[in-house]
Write a structure and sequence with these properties.
By secondary structure, the chain is α/β, with parallel strands linked by helices. The chain has 2 domains: 151 residues, Rossmann fold (3-Layer(aba) Sandwich), CATH 3.40.50; 107 residues, Rossmann fold. It is built from 11 helices and 10 strands. The strands form 2 sheets. The protein has a 6-stranded parallel β-sheet, with helices on both faces. Helix 3 links the parallel strand 3 and strand 4. Helix 2 crosses helix 3.
């Protein structure tokens, strides 16, 4: 069983990428809608939230957990790994993606939330394998609100998106990592303002890493454990709103449930 978590609906884009890659399994998705967004929270808060989520996954029998959230990957992966890796295999988004840029020569842009940018996690992880890498991390916190409220056609939102895209274009970036799971939805708008830049959804790299992990655990027969997928969706508040907002990322056919620990 594969568990994914994010502070809200954005991580559903990661779930979609995993499913589209051909991985079949039982999936549990948890959206921490009571505490969204993580991008403006501090490390202690995020660790408290994600520790509860991991305990929830353990109780549900999850075999591997996908941190479908850049902010939590940036701030608390090491703590969660130390506490839970003997129970669950953990796939952090940033740490899984960084190795794919070990040979990059061009300036790499990163568009992310405030907390992720302040952590310099992408720069740190990429430079572990590519010491000469030139990484520019750009705070784009308002992208979260723009996507969740579908404001991308509004003039003010378009101007904000344009200013961020042009900043990276003027900085000489040829590639830009979309360091928040909400951001891939804005690729058509970003590409309009900066067609020279390749905007990269990290989920496609993370999916490759997960596939390799499943090959190791299942042997040579990827998908042998399951020939179809099942889905369960949990949140910490407002399940109906989550289902409505999440529809832009994933076709949620099942009821969204309020997690028991969130009812306290």
């Amino acid at each position: 069983m594969i568990g994914l978590f994010d502070s809200g609906v954005g991580g559903l884009s990661v779930l979609r990428a995993i499913v589209q890659s051909g991985i079949n399994d039982d999936f549990i998705y948890f959206g921490d809608t009571k505490n969204v967004p993580y991008g403006t929270k501090n490390k202690e808060q995020i660790l408290s939230y994600t520790r509860e989520i991991m305990q929830f996954f353990v109780q549900k029998g999850v075999d591997c957990a996908v941190m479908a959230c850049n902010t939590s990957s940036a701030l608390v992966f090491e703590e969660l790994r130390r506490e839970f890796s003997d129970k669950i295999k953990i796939y952090p988004l940033i740490q899984s993606v960084a190795p794919f840029f070990k040979d990059e020569k061009e300036t790499i842009g990163v568009m992310a939330t405030s907390a992720t940018v302040k952590s310099f996690a992408y720069t740190r992880e990429i430079k572990k394998l590519n010491k000469e890498a030139d990484v520019i991390e750009l705070e784009c916190q308002e992208f979260v609100k723009i996507v969740e409220n579908r404001l991308y056609d509004k003039k003010e939102a378009a101007e904000y998106i344009k200013s961020k895209a042009e900043y990276l274009k003027n900085a000489g970036c040829k590639k830009a990592i979309l360091g928040c799971t909400h951001f891939p939805y804005l690729v058509p708008v970003l590409s309009k303002f900066a067609p020279e830049i390749e905007f990269i959804d990290p989920a496609k790299y993370l999916t490759d890493v997960i596939k390799e992990g499943l090959k190791e655990s299942l042997g040579a027969h990827l998908g042998a454990k399951k020939t179809f997928s099942t889905f369960k969706f949990y949140v910490s508040s407002a399940p109906e709103e989550f289902k409505k907002s999440g529809s832009i990322f994933f076709d949620i056919k099942d009821d969204v449930l309020l997690a028991d620990f969130a009812k306290c």
